[in-house]
Every structure is written in structure tokens, then in C-alpha cells.
Amino acid sequence: MTTTSTSPTSDTPQSSEGTVRLGIIGTGTQGSAYAHFISQGLVPHMSLGAFADTDPAALAAISEKHPGVPTFATHQELIGSGLVDAVITTIPHYQHPDVAIAAIEAGIPTIVEKPAAVHTTQVKRLNEVAAAHPEVPFAIMFNQRNNPLYQQIKQIVDAGEIGEVLRSTWIITTWWRPQGYYEQSAWRATWGGEGGGVLVNQAPHQLDLWQWICGVPKKVFAKAGFGFRRDIAVEDEVTALVDYGDGRTGTFITCTHDLSGTDRLEILGTQGKIVVEGSKTATVKRYSRPEKEISDESTPESARALMSGNGASLEDVVTTEVIEDTSAWGAQHSGVLENFAQHVLGQAELIAPGSDGIHGVRLANAIHLSAWTGREVPIDFDEAEYLAELNKRIEAEGEYPTQS
């Protein structure tokens, strides 16, 4: 994407053929990390265009690390500066939609940090604007979709190599956060400031991958602990059971108080099984034919032999493949940025289209609503009821405006 800068100075980043100048809106942890990736050349088709942050101290800090990159006090100034070819929103969750909408309506390609927002009403509004401007690239930072391991697992499942998915279980408790983490900022772990706990802050990537690979469930029943092991208002412990219909189920377990942590995903199919450990190693079992056929063809004698290991064994009908991910930390994030840049340049399809952001938000909302009400809720839940329950909690905090 080649653009013409307006009256550039010696300090103004110049657009060049084949390079997208990125405006980073929000220069906290994530914004700073993306600036680092780009400055280190980890995103070949992207350069730093400008920074925006409402906190002068944050702007001063980012300018010290990246001298010469223009800074702005508001996202509106950055969007209208003519100094950027695209933007990324690395700001508090509730703010993503409004800022992204402003950029898209200005014709600026936009990538939003996860989650796309806190509740589906917000995301629907964002998606509607994006759909009205199909010429403007729109993506979301689902960096784990760029993890080669999960890409291969999705290909295996989509190709039917393990048959139809019957059950999936993800235990993702590697999010240990001490009390001091929550005390860094007043908005953290609040309903009005952050919109939730582990489901909206730490686990959105897994919620996205789970439905991306295994499909979108029909119903959710959840138990959650709100301030269970931390002095916070939001959830730090979650167990969710989802129903895909026809007896197919899934379980999602996460928390922020497991000091040693577990990251284990199991996907059981009618003709195989996948077990992922630590998001680094996947063991794929493929059956010679569907498990039900193996069962139906057995006789009492062959069943005894199969289970005892006398004669025929399970190894005769099961093959095993081990897949390892050796990509470096940060490669997934920088890879999504590079994919976005190439998409803006017309050279690639998006790994994570922005419109996909609603799926993980909807699932997190359904889990919250079920835990709040104590009942099973459909994935297409009553959004008015959800907002009413959320606003009760925001009002109780007495610090933030309610949502609509």
C-alpha cells in the first residue's frame, strides 16, 4: 500500500512501496510489544507510523524507546494525521469497538487486539460497520491461529482424519496471577473497567481456538468463582460444560490461581484422538476405521483378546503421530501482524478476520450468564438479560458507566 505523506519532516516515518505504516493506539504492554517486534524487523512488511495514548507518561516512555515516531494524545488525531496506513487498537476492552469503528469509517485498515469487546452487542455494532466498508481490511489479533501446531490440528480435524468430534476438553490453568498483578491498575479485574476476569483477559485465545477447531456449541452450563482465590470482583475460576447436540459435549476449565498450571487439550473423534500438551506437542491417534465399527465387529473372544493383549492388540488398529511446535515466543504475534500487512498490500488472505472476534466474546458472555443465573443458557442467549446482569455488577462497583 503506497500512500503520500503530507509535508513530512526528517523525523516523520515515510511510507514506501511494499510497507504498511502502523499506528499503535494504546502504548501499554501489548502496544509496546508490537512496537518492539516491528522495530526489530520481525514484521518485514510493516513499519512504525505513529503512537497514540491518552497518558502523557506512556507516550513519553514509548518515544524514548522509539525516537522520531510521531505521537498523538488521541486516536482521532492519529487517524486523521495521514501518517499511518493502518492501525491496531491495544487499549482497554470496552474501548476497542468505538476506536476501531472510527478508523474503519475513515478508511484506515484496522486490527483489534483480543477480545474484540466485552459483550456481543458491542461486537455486532463493530461488525456491522466493517461489513458496510468491505473495502477496508479488518482483522483481530488471534495470534494462536498463527501457531503452526494449532493450524495443523485444525487441518486434521477439518479433513475428517479423526472422524466427527464427539468430545473436547481443554484445561488451561497456566494463567497464574498474584494479587499484586490485579493491583497494578484500578480498572483491572473490575466489571466496569475490564469487563471480566480470566475469560476476557487471559483465556480469549483458547476460547477462540476451541470453537475454531471443534465448532460452536449450542448450549452452555457453567460454574465460576468470582474472587474465589483473589481479592477481586470478577471470575478467577471457571468450569464450563458445553453441548454441541447429538450427545457431543465439551469442557473448558481455566483459572488464575494454579501456581504450576496445566495446558492440555483433548479432542476425541469417532475415528481418532488428539492430545495437545503445553500448546507445544500434539499426539494424534488415527484409527484404521471408526471406533463403532471396531466395537460392532468384535466377538466376546476377540474382545477379550484385544483388551488383554493376547493376539490382536489396539496397536493393530491405531497409528500414532507426534507433532511438535518449535516456533519462538512472539512469532505468532508478529506473524499475524505480517499477515495483516500483506493482506493490506493485497498479497494474502487474513488468518484472523475481524468479524470472527464475536465467537469468543459470545462464548465468554454465555459462560458468565450461566454462572450468574445458575442455569444452562443457549449460545444465542438473550443479550438484554446479559447486559442487565453485567450492569448490576458495574453499578455495584460505582466507578464506571453502565453498558448498552
From TrEMBL:
Domain GFO/IDH/MocA-like oxidoreductase, by residue range, is 150-274
Family matches, as InterPro entries: Gfo/Idh/MocA-like_OxRdtase_N (IPR000683), Gfo/Idh/MocA_Oxidoreductase (IPR052515), GFO_IDH_MocA-like_dom (IPR055170), NAD(P)-bd_dom_sf (IPR036291)
Stretches assigned to the Gfo/Idh/MocA-like oxidoreductase N-terminal domain? 21-134
Q: Does this UniProt record's set of keywords contain NAD?
A: yes
Q: Name one Pfam family in it.
A: GFO_IDH_MocA_C3
Q: What start and end residues bound the annotated signal peptide?
A: none
Q: Which UniProt keywords apply?
A: NAD
- Protein name per UniProt: Gfo/Idh/MocA family protein
